[in-house]
Amino acid sequence: TAASALAGLGAASASVGTPRAAAAAPMLIDYAMRQIPAADIRAAGYAGVINYVSMSRPGSSFGAKPITRPYAESLTAAGLVIVSNYQFGKPGGTALSYFTRGLAGGVADARTAWQLHTAAGGGQSAPIFFSVDDDISRDTWNTLALPWFRGINSVLGVQRTGVYGGIDVCRWAAADGVIGNSSSPGHRWAWQTRAWSGNQVEPTAVLYQRIVSTASTPAP
Asked: What global pTM score does this model have?
């Protein structure tokens, strides 16, 4: 799977598969299936990548999950930015979405994410984004996802915690104080997907997932 994300909001849109370096904001690409060579990513016009600090789900074997130090070093040597994301499990998958595991699960997942992030050379102050890859209700947020993020915060601290999800999840995470602030004024460590967002864009998010890979609409 692959998806494109625009860094910052209000960025000019580019056609699928033809990212433009001259867009109003830099564009990143998110992928897990294999380690795409850094030169190919640069040649396609991307400024960086979103890679995973989590293992593959049972029964799957993603070549770029988790990110490794040699691969990370090849990306940074090419001048590419790397954003760390944690995702393990999905609705209907071979492992349940990890945001359903509550406080203790959040503690365990944050420890795993931090170990893989630092092993790959990730910065000590850099945030890690944690995925809520589902269209959840406020009740599910309050009873399952929020305690999970509290567990993550207890390990990483709020400032090093980010969230991936639809617009509501991004807003709930900010309102409940479980994600950190970007160094860009007025922005939070939120990566909003256009899925489950009703064509709305959260202006405080630092990343916006404009292209979502599906069988009917493949990503770049």
From this structure: 0.86
